[in-house]
Amino acid sequence: MGFRAPRLNARLSAWNELAIGAGLILGLLTTAAAAGLAATMLVAFWAIHRYAGFFVFHRPDEGYEYVVTMAVVALAIAVVGPGELSVDAAIDLDWAGATGLWVYLAGLAAGVGQLLAFYRRPVGEAA
Question: What is the pTM of this model?
């Protein structure tokens, strides 16, 4: 499953994470940024953290406690919205509530799409 394009995946992931951070800091397209964060956390969970158990201090890959917490925080941000001190509020962009939930779910779908496109089972993992 997936194709070999690790550099493309790494570049897309890096640019995605920069855009998510900027969006959340500025409050610009905040719900979409929260959805992107959820997608990133889904990919991180599936590709790395699920093997190590729950707690983040488990080594070598660290547990999934942190990525699940970030995904839940992203859900809260998507549903509640960015607040008054944001670019979204300044331009009267409100995707909070049910729309935020749908955008969040679309972000999770994008994460699944990234996994389908790029994820390759590690050598030695059971089929």
Answer: 0.85
Domain range for 88: 6-118
Of the ranges 24-28, 83-87, 97-101, 117-121, which one carries the lowest mean pLDDT score? 117-121
Side-chain-side CA neighbours of 44 within 13 Å: the count stands at: 21
Helices (H) and strands (E) in the chain, counts: 5, 0
- Which residues does 26 contact at the CB level (< 8 Å), separation at least 6? 86, 87
Overall domain count for the chain: 1
User: What are the distances in angstroms from CA 107 to CA 2, 53, 95, 110?
Assistant: 19, 24, 14, 5
Say whether pLDDT at 127 is over 60.
no
Residue 126 lies in a domain: no
Q: In this structure, is residue 124 part of a structural domain?
A: no
Averaged pLDDT, 89-109: 94
